[in-house]
Amino acid sequence: MKKVLFVCLGNICRSPLAEGLFNHQVQEMGLQDKFIADSCGTAAYHIGEQPDGRSVANAKDNGLIYSHAARQVQDEDFNEFDIIIPMDASNMSTLKKIDTGGSAKLQLMRDYDSGFEGVDVPDPYFGGEQGIQEVYDILNRSTKALLEDLLEE
Description:
Strands 2-1-3-4 form a four-stranded parallel β-sheet. The longest helix is centred in the C-terminal third of the chain and has 24 residues, at 129-152. The chain has one domain: Rossmann fold. The model has no long low-confidence stretch (mean pLDDT 96). It has helices at residues 14-28, 53-61, 77-80, 89-98, 129-152; strands at residues 2-8, 35-41, 83-86, 105-106. It is α/β, with parallel strands linked by helices. The radius of gyration is 14 Å and the shape is globular. Helix 4 links the parallel strand 3 (83-86) and strand 4.
C-alpha cells in the first residue's frame, strides 16, 4: 500500500482538500486497498480544527464532501509515508529542515500539474471565492496526475 501525505502551513485549506480529493479519486477507482492519504501542517496554528469552512463549502459545490482534524507534521511521518507532498516551496524548505533522514520522497504538489512544475499552490486563506475555486481546480488536476503517476510505478 502506498501512503501519501499532503502538507501545507496550517492544515486547514490546501492539504486537507488535496487529501479529500485524492481519497475520493482513489475510491472512485476502487483502489482503497492500494493507497491511503493523510494531511498535516508544518505549523501548529490549527491543531484539532476542522478544515476552513469556505474551502469545505466550495468543495461541496464541486461535489466533494470531506473532513479532517488538523495536525502538525511529526518525525515519524518521514518514515510512515512513501511520498510527502508540500503545497509550496516554503513548506518544502521547512520539511527538508526537520527531516531526520526518513525514507519518504518529497515532491511539490504542482510538479504533478503539467506546465506548472515547481510553482506553488497559492494559499487561499486570505483570498476570496475565486481564489478558493482556483485552488480546488489546481488540486483536482494535480491529485489526478499524482494518482496516475503512482499507478505507473
